[in-house]
Amino acid sequence: MLKPQVQQSQSITTIFPISKPFFQGSGHVFLPVQASPSFKKSPKIRISMSRNNKIKALFGGSTEPTTKVKAVITVKPTIVNTILVDDEIQDLFGQSLELELVSAKLDPKTGSEKSTIKGSAQRKLAKDQSGQIVYEAEFKVPEDFGEVGAILVQNEQLREMYLNDVVLTGLQSGPITITCGSWIQSKNTVKDKRIFFTDKSYLPSQTPDGLKGLRAEELVKLRGNGQGERKASDRIYDYDVYNDLGNPDSDPETARPVLGGKEHPYPRRCRTGRARCKTDPKSESRSLSNYIPRDEAFADIKNAQFGAKLLYSVLHAVIPTVETLVVDKDLGFPSFTEIDKLFNEGINMPLPEALKEKSLWQSALPRLLKEATDTEKSILRFETPDAMERDKFFWFRDEEFGRQTLAGLNPYSLKLVTEWPLISKLDPAIYGPAESAITAELIEEEIGGFMTLEEALKQKKLFILDYHDLLLPYVEKVRKIEGSVLYGSRTLFFLNADGTLRPLAIELTRPPMDGKPQWKQVFSPSWQSTKCWLWRLAKANVLAHDSGYHQLVSHWLRTHCCVEPYIIATNRRLSTMHPINRLLQPHFRYTMEINALARQLLINADGVIESTFTPRTYSMELSSVAYDKEWRFDYEALPKDLIRRGLAVEDPNSPHGLRLTIEDNPHANDGLDIWAALGQWVTDYVNHYYPEKGLVESDEELQAWWTEIRTVGHADKKDEPWWPVLKTPDDLIQIITTMIWVTSGHHAAVNFGQYTFGGYFPNRPTIARDKMPTEDKTEEDWKSFVEKPELALLHCFPSKIQATKVMIVLDTLSSHSPDEEYLGKHMEQPWAADPVIKAAFERFSGRLKNIEAIIDSRNANENLHNRNGAGVVPYELLKPTSGPGVTGKGVPYSISI
Question: Is 747 one of the catalytic residues?
C-alpha cells in the first residue's frame, strides 16, 4: 500500500496514477491508505480527480496550514452570575458561548464572504484580576483566512450575560481586542447571533469588503421596524413623542398634553410601543417601567450600588414613607428652628419595606437614613449643605444672591440689558400694559446717583433675570391650584467695580384675572424694616422662578431631554465601527436609563416636579414653551451661549477668542477652559479620520445621522435656518464638541451643586405658596404681615412635605457614584487601539489636569470675589474630577444621574 511520508500537523497533496477506486462519486474517489508511523491514527484521505487522469490525496481535510487561535472572553459579574446556579454549573462541563470568527476579506475565488471559523467557549473556575468571569475558546484558522474583522456570538445559557470583551491571541498579525460592552441574550430569547466588530474603526467607504454586509445588517436590526411593543431584551432604537407623562385611564386629573408636535414642540424620546390609553387615544398607557434598549441600562453591579437603583429606592420607598408621616400636606415650618432640626435631629420614620434589609438601606442611602435604636425604624437626617456649613446665614445676604446668579446652580439665565425701557412682547390686550414698572429714576437712585442709566447701559453694567414673558401666561392657571402662587418676574443687577453683582430691583407682575386689572410692583433692597421684609418675600418668589427654570429648562430640557435624540440617532445611523460612534458613546452612557426613570417618577403627572416646583401641573408644558422659544442647537455651544446673552464678545486677542463682560465669571472662565480642551481633543480625533474635507460630505452614515437628528429627533425645529451644515471636518468638530460639552460640562454645572445650593431650601425655594402682602392688600393680611413678617416668609416657602421631598431628591441627584467615569480619566479601548488617537487622548487628559490646578488657583485668588471670601463656597462645579458622594465638583463623561 502507498505510504506517503507526512508530518501530523501538515496537509499534503500526493499525486499518483489512478487504479480502481473503492468508491467514486461527485468527482472524488476514496482509497484506504496505510498510516504513516508519524500518525497515531490513520488519517482521513480524500482523493480528487485531476484532468491528467491523476488523483490528489488530501490529508487532514484541508489544503492549507492552520493557525491555532485562542479567544479569552470576559464577562462582567452580575447579581445572578456571581453565584453558580444550575445553568452555570453545567457551564463548567459544556459549552456556553458559540463564537464565529469573521474574515475582513472576501473569498478571491468566489467574491463572496468567507466561511466563518466556529468555536465553543467554556467557563473557567478562576476569575481574572479584575474579578470578571472568564471563558476560553480555541479556533483553527487557515492561513489564507485573512484579518479577523468581527465575531458572531450566541449565548447558549438560559440567562443573559454582559459580555465585556474578547481578546484573540495566536494570530500572525498579533493580538486583537474586540470590545463588546453589551448584553447577550439567551438564544432561547433571541435567535439571531450578535455581531461585534474589532476595535479598528472604519468610515463606511473604508469598510473591508468582508464586513460591509454585517455593517449594514447590524444597523437595520438596531432601527427595527417601528412596530409592536418593545421587550426588555430588545436593542431597538426608535422615536416617539412625550405622550406617556399622564395617566388618564387611572385618574382624569392626571391627563397631560402630548409634548412633540405643532401644538407643543418638543424633542423626541425613545419609543416603547405600549398600547394607547382608552380615555385618550393620543396618550400612551403607563407601566411599572419604561423600555430602553438593553445596552442603555445600568450594569447590575452599578445598578445595585447607585444611579437608577438608588433614585428608584428614594422615589418608591423613602418619599412615600415620609408622606405618610405628614398628616397636613399644606403644613409649613413654624420657625427657622424647625427647619434646622432637619439637619441636627432628623425625622423618626419607620424603615421603608423596600429597605428593611439593613445592609440595603445603609449602602443605598448612607447620607440620609441613620440607624435608630429600634431596628424597625430609622432617622431621616440630612447632611448640612456645604454652603450652610460655611455660613449659616449665607442665604439671607443680597451679595450672595448676586454671586449665586453667576457662580451658583443656574448660570444660564443671566443676560445683559441692552434695551430700555424693558417691554414685554406679550399681547397687552390679554396681559395688560407691556412696559415694565422699573424706571430709569429708580435704577439711578439704587446705584447711588454716580452714573446715569444711559452710562450704565453703555458700560454694560446692567444685567437681568427675565422670567416675565415665559411665566406670565401661566400665572392664572397655576393660581387655580391650591397652595400655589406665580408671578411674571424681572430682576435687575448692577455690576460693581469689584466684579460682583448687586441686586437693584425685582418686579412682580400678575396679569388681569378674576375681574381685576393687571397688578405689578417693584421691590428694592432697603434698610427700612417693612421694605426689607417685602424685598425678602419678592426675592423668595424670584428664587422659586429660577429654581423651576433651572430644573425644567437649564437642566432637564437642555441636557437630558435634548440629548436623547442624539443617542437614538447615533445607534440607528452610525455603525459601532464608525469612529464618531466610538467617540460619542462614552458621553451617552446611562442617559436613556435616567431619562426613562424621570418620565416614570419625576416629570410625570403628580410626580416630584409637579408636586414641589412652582409651575406645578404645567411644568412640562412650560418646558415645551421654553424649547419652542429659546432652544437652538448652535447656542448650546458655550461660547455662542455667552455671546447670545451678552456675557461675552468675540475678541481674537482674549483667551479662547472671547472677552467676558464680567471678568470674574466662574462658570464662564472654567467652562471655556474645558470647552477648549474638548475642542482640541475632538479636532485631533476628527482630523485623524477625516484628513480630507470631502470625506465628511461623502460619509453616508454620518450624513444620515445628522439629517435624522434634525428632521426626526428634533422634528419640530427641522426647518430652522440656524442648524449647522455638515460638509467639512470643521463643521463636524463644532457639532461634536457642542454635543459632548452639553453631556459633560453643561450638565455638571447644573446638576452636582443641587444639594450644595438647594439642600437648605430657604436659599432656593422651589415654590411660592402665598401672594405678596401688597397684592390686593387687605387690612387683616397687612396687619398679620407687619406683626410677624417672618411667618409670612415661612408660609411662602414650601410646605414640610414639599421641602423634605425636594431635599431627598436633590441629595440623590447631586451624588457621584463610587465608580464614576470622569472626563479624561478613562481611555476607551478603541481609542487606545490607535496610536494617534491614544496620544491625542493623553494630551487631552493632561490638559484637564492642568485645568484642575488653574481652578484651584482661581479659588485661592482673594481678588476674585465671586469665588473667594469669608464663608464663600469656592466654585468647583467644573473641576474635572471628584471623590464619590455629594462633593459639589466633578465632570463625568455623561448624564448618568
Answer: yes
Q: Of 316, 259, 315, 269, whose CA–CA distance to 292 is shortest?
A: 269
If DSSP codes are grouped into helix, strand and coil, which group holds residue 796? Answer: helix
Q: How far apart are CA 195 and CA 577, in angstroms?
A: 11
Is 897 an annotated catalytic residue? yes
The stretch 766-795 carries a mean pLDDT of 95
- The answer to whether the beta carbons of residues 576 and 150 sit under 8 Å apart is no
Question: How many of the other CB atoms lie within 10 Å of CB of 147?
Answer: 16
**Cell numbers placing 103:** 474574515
751 is an active site residue: yes
Q: Which of 342, 323, 382 is nearest to 755 (CA)?
A: 382
Instruction: Using the predicted structure, report yes or no on whether residue 595 has a pLDDT greater than 80.
Output: yes
Q: What is the rounded distance in angstroms from the CA atom of residue 270 to the CA atom of residue 293?
A: 9
Alpha-helical segments (H) within 631-776: 638-644, 666-689, 694-697, 700-708, 729-741, 747-751, 754-758
Q: Residue 710, SS3? A: helix
- Average pLDDT, integer, range 849-878: 97
Q: Express each pLDDT in 696-724 by its tens digit.
A: 999 999 999 999 999 999 999 999 999 99
- Is the pLDDT reported for residue 218 higher than 70? yes
Contact, 456 vs 501, CB < 8 A? no
User: Which residues, in sequence order, are CB contacts of 75 under 8 Å at separation 6+?
Assistant: 81, 132, 133, 134, 135, 161, 162, 163, 164
Q: Which is nearest to 489 in space by CA: 472, 513, 511, 512?
A: 472
Name the catalytic one among 47, 184, 292, 897.
897
pLDDT at 373: 53
Residue 131 has pLDDT above 50, yes or no: yes
Residue of 550, 587, 656, 747 with catalytic role: 747
What the block records as the C-alpha cell of 884 is 464619590
Least confident of 220-234, 281-295, 343-357, 598-612: 343-357
pLDDT computed for residue 396 by the predictor: 92
Enter the pTM of the model: 0.90
- Arithmetic mean of pLDDT, 90-96: 57
Residue 450 pLDDT greater than 90, yes or no: no
**And the C-alpha cell for 799?**
410646605
- Cβ atoms within 10 Å of 796's Cβ, excluding its own: 22
Q: Which of 247, 595, 665, 751 is catalytic?
A: 751
HSE-up (13 A, CA, CB side) for residue 23: 8
Per-residue pLDDT tens over the stretch 720-773: 999 999 999 999 999 999 999 999 999 999 999 999 999 999 999 999 999 999
Written as nine digits, the cell of 120 is 465553543
Q: Report residue 323 CA to chain centroid gap.
A: 29
Handedness of CA 635, 637, 640, 644 (dihedral sign): positive
- pLDDT at residue 697, rounded to an integer: 97
**DSSP for 350-377?**
EPPGGG-SHHHHHHH-TTTEEE-SSTTE
Identify the active-site residue in 560, 578, 667, 746: 560
Q: Which of the following is catalytic: 555, 656, 746, 795?
A: 555
The three three-digit cell numbers of residue 99, written as one number: 463564537
**Phi, psi for residue 414 in degrees, rounded to 5:** -65, 135
Q: Spell out the SS3 assignment of 293-329.
A: CHHHCCCHHHHHHCCHHHHHHHHHHHHHHHHHHCCCC
Write down the mean pLDDT value for the chain: 88
Average pLDDT over residues 292-311: 65
pLDDT in tens, 190-216: 999 999 999 999 999 999 999 999 999
> What are the phi and psi torsion angles at 19 (to 5°)?
-115, -170
Cell triple for residue 179? Answer: 470590545
Place of cell 412625550: 242
CB atoms within 10 A of CB 607: 19
In the chain, what are the helix, strand and coil shares in percent, each to the nearest 5? 40, 15, 45
Nearest-angstrom CA–CA distance, 750 and 735 = 21
Question: Cβ-count burial of 170 within 10 angstroms (0-12 exposed, 13-18 middle, 19+ buried)?
Answer: middle
